Amino acid sequence: MRDVMVVGAGMTRFGKFFDRSVRSLAEEAVADALADAGAAAHEVEFTAFANAVGGILQGQEMIRGQSALHHTGLLGSPVVNVENACASASSAFHVAWQAVASGSAEVALAVGAEKLTHPDKMRSFAAIGTALDLEDAPAARALLAAVLLGWPPPGAPAAATGDVDTPAADPGPTGASLQSSPFMDVYAAMTRHYLSESGGTREDLAAVSVKNHRHASMNPKAQYREPVTVEEVLASRVVADPLTVLMCSPIADGAAALVLASPEAMARLGVPGVRVRASVLASGRDRTLEEPSVAERAVHRAYELAGVGPGDLDVLEVHDAAVTAELLLYEELGLCSPGDGPKLLASGATALGGRVPVNPSGGLLSRGHPIGATGCGQLVELVDQLRGRCGSRQVEGARLALAENGGGFIGADAAATVITILSV
Amino acid sequence: MRDVMVVGAGMTRFGKFFDRSVRSLAEEAVADALADAGAAAHEVEFTAFANAVGGILQGQEMIRGQSALHHTGLLGSPVVNVENACASASSAFHVAWQAVASGSAEVALAVGAEKLTHPDKMRSFAAIGTALDLEDAPAARALLAAVLLGWPPPGAPAAATGDVDTPAADPGPTGASLQSSPFMDVYAAMTRHYLSESGGTREDLAAVSVKNHRHASMNPKAQYREPVTVEEVLASRVVADPLTVLMCSPIADGAAALVLASPEAMARLGVPGVRVRASVLASGRDRTLEEPSVAERAVHRAYELAGVGPGDLDVLEVHDAAVTAELLLYEELGLCSPGDGPKLLASGATALGGRVPVNPSGGLLSRGHPIGATGCGQLVELVDQLRGRCGSRQVEGARLALAENGGGFIGADAAATVITILSV
Description:
Two copies of one chain form a homodimer.
Chain A: E1 5-11, H1 22-37, E2 46-50, H2 54-58, H3 64-68, E3 79-83, H4 88-101, E4 107-115, H5 121-129, H6 137-149, H7 182-198, H8 202-216, H9 230-235, E5 238-240, E6 243-244, E7 253-261, H10 263-269, E8 274-284, H11 294-306, E9 315-317, H12 323-332, H13 341-346, H14 363-366, H15 374-386, E10 400-407, E11 415-423
Parallel strand pairs in A: 2-3, 2-4, 9-10
Antiparallel strand pairs in A: 1-7, 1-8, 4-7, 5-6, 8-11, 10-11
């Protein structure tokens, strides 16, 4: 397997862009990434395009990449449409990496583009829910809408939430089942269980959000750039006790793209790049008490491939769809011992300026979470961190970076996790 | 790039299975392919799963592979969901091939599974139409439903059609635009233009269908196994003059799967395999008069990679969504000179027993066309041909085989074509 370099990275701002299309967002990210790489569209020999909800929200069930990239000049070369729920974009990166690693392409492109906003917000929630159409679809949909997007269960306190989502009072088609859903109880119990096992508190959960909102305040591409306080996070609307809306990632639109190249192609382009040390995709059962999670299995393999350990990392982007996930991931990725997530957070190690900053971009919580674009968004941040281009949120001297992007249903048999390790 | 072998192949029969799910179909194909390879599910290190209409027809918008493969034991390893309209399954094969070629997997699986039937047939037609949501969606949808699935324009003669589709008299939501569609005129004109340029006749078009139905009569996995005559084809219902319903591929359900392996893994499994000499995916503008088609570009590259030419081929499977496509593909793939498609067909060269049999399985026309499974179905046939396992339809001494699988809209900027060359 030959070396693969990332030689270009570009993204739109993430946010709510009611007047923009998936195509418009994809075009901006692709143009930025190609310009960054000094590459012309005709030099790209393979494109993996990620999108998750374009079928249900925009009616584009097939050939989404060919449609979005119609005017980019890329369509002469192969386009493959890749989907893995919230891990779609990192899966596309993985496929593009394989194209270069296999020698079948010298220059490849990974693009993630998603338009999650819809004039009828209930349609956005419904679209997300279809990620989870497994054994118990209505309950799973209700849960995901709640934990991922801050859709409140009926009757929950409707506290002011600053600039985050303020969904309509109408609980929507599946709202009635939210409070009675066994999944809801399971998730709330999982979070409470985590807090009791770790000795963590609701304030620790809130502190994840505070940290990531502070990071996002330094990121011009982030959706929400206003810092928040622990008190504000705790006082925001309850989604699923103990989670409040400011502890959950918001609805967003956006696109991100990366140009991958062989070392020879990078030399020809004459641009600086970062090296892909590992790209590992895992599927299967997510967190259970009995066996390693998908993330644990994937990161174990990624460390092995890269020849590094968690102590070597300088900066990470992780899938903080809700705050609990970030704390659990500290432990699963080996940044600390099991149960020590809250302690690691409280030490300041994972904040900018700390030993190993996590989510300097603001993470899903604040940079935003346009499902099929998120994984590429994480990688754009890390590539820029490794190239020293992140301004006030730059992690000084960052040389080794890790991204974790998860998709599918937490607690069910349908998760996908991609771990990417990059180095200067 | 290292060698990649196909060491297992399996498929369901293609047909209309109202009582079966995508999961049930996928499970059968995967079990057959793994048994054929002598491999256990846990030995598969990467799976690329193809499906095209599961979002709109079954409501499974995301993680379709993880859902379909839930009970197969495959989910511990990576699953990537791949889509490229009618070329979805060969695109999944391409991605699985890259996984092995890159060295990131020793054993990989490509699966295509599709359930196109629906109790409400109009929903099947509508699902197909969404493949084409480009510049002129309603017209494109109407056209595809017509040319691909035999949906008759209102007012067309409703001749008896044997065991092929007999769509309801209701022209459906987009039926009203069929006769006035400029696309409709363009496609009909293209076929008439082809006939006049090549000196071909309506009988030549019919002869493609006769040949492929005869081949399918020898294939237990084919949807339609009754031979038809030129007279029956010409007398069947007109879809778009000069195309009749027996000149168009039918609605089908089905699944097909292939196990790919490195030469080392094949030796470990101890099974015979065939070699992937080339896997080439191309996107972009399809047939125009001014420039090479996607298929021409892709096959040129594939011949180059494999170090072979069209004269070396022993057997082919090509994307005969309608009869005109097979004749055009004879020319685009270099089996004959431009305009000589009908002559090549009439010579008997492309029939079983001829110099270079095309679509020994019966092709899309008769084996059936479950969109996201078709490309893998073609490859299952060729792998079996190269291993001498095809019984009465065996191409004697077949050593070099080529598959062409096309997706997207003919005449627009959204096509994808995959060329796969296999050898003993």
